[in-house]
Amino acid sequence: MSELGKGAASVIYLVQDPKTKQIWALKHVAKENEKDERFLEQTESEYQIAAKLDHPGLRKVDRLIKKKSGLLTVSELFLVMELVDGTSVDRSPPKTFESAAEIFESTARALAYMHSKGFVHADMKPNNIIVDAQGNTKVIDLGQSCTLGTVKKRIQGTPDYIAPEQVHRRPITEKTDIYNLGATMYWALTRKHVPTALGKEDSLLGTLDDSMVAKPKPPSQLNSRVPEHFDKLIMQCVEIEPAMRPSSMSEVADRLAMIRGALLKEATLRKSGSFRRVTP
User: Fold this and answer.
1) pLDDT in tens, 63-106
2) For residue 270, how many other CB atoms are within 10 A of its CB?
3) For the chain, which end, N or C, has fewer CB atoms within 10 Å of the first or last residue's CB respectively?
């Protein structure tokens, strides 16, 4: 019906099943040379992982269709996915701290579910969080997802949000998603990116030793309105050393819920004229 977007060696279309009239998003990945084989493998892995997940905060994948150029060689893949009708956080960042806390709490709950099933998203960033007109949040794009503890053969991730362990090809864990989400929240509240071990060059030449990665300024130094507890949580999430980050994604979600509750209470007190500073 129309083209929705493009990615690495893929195009996503808006499609309709002619029999059921159901509307879907269809990801088409084609192999044009041997280097493209990894994109086929990545898409098949995305399907295998998505098929094991069922959470309202994660985009569902219905099926994988393979097209062969010979008896055994797969040349194209079609991933039939739930159509998520909304706007990504990178295109429409949250306008209030309350809405930011709500969006990121929902995101953290979905990621915590993934972790409970043994998987890591591994590419959390603003354009992989979709918010619909009703305020519901959906995490999309499991293309980089993997099982907990995976050591990847190549650097995979988005430079402005990538965790040090991804750059140096150490085991990918739930702490990796915590870093990626922390970097995402940092951008949403400041419109600035945290310094990462990869820097701006997506190559081995652009990597830095962990000890050389600059510590980001607290979000409150870039945006003085950032609440203290939001500030503290984000800075803990983007700690270079995974052990220094929050213990789990569930903890991150719970703390975001507390932050949102405190902000809403503060807003109510302000409206009633009996305002006093409230902290989680």
Assistant:
1) 999 988 766 788 889 999 999 989 999 999 999 999 999 999 99
2) 12
3) N
The dihedral through the CA atoms of 244, 249, 253, 254 has a sign that is negative
- The Cα-based distances of 165 to 146, 156, 179 in angstroms read 14, 10, 10
Structural domains for the chain: 2-81 (3.30.200.20), 87-269 (1.10.510.10)
119 Cβ neighbours under 8 A, 6+ residues apart? 49, 52, 53, 145, 146, 147, 148
Model confidence pLDDT, tens digit, residues 101-153:
999 999 999 999 999 999 999 999 999 999 998 999 999 999 899 999 999 98
Identify the sign of the CA torsion 92, 46, 151, 153. Answer: negative
Specify the amino acid at residue 181: L
- Alpha-carbon span 24 to 27, nearest angstrom: 10
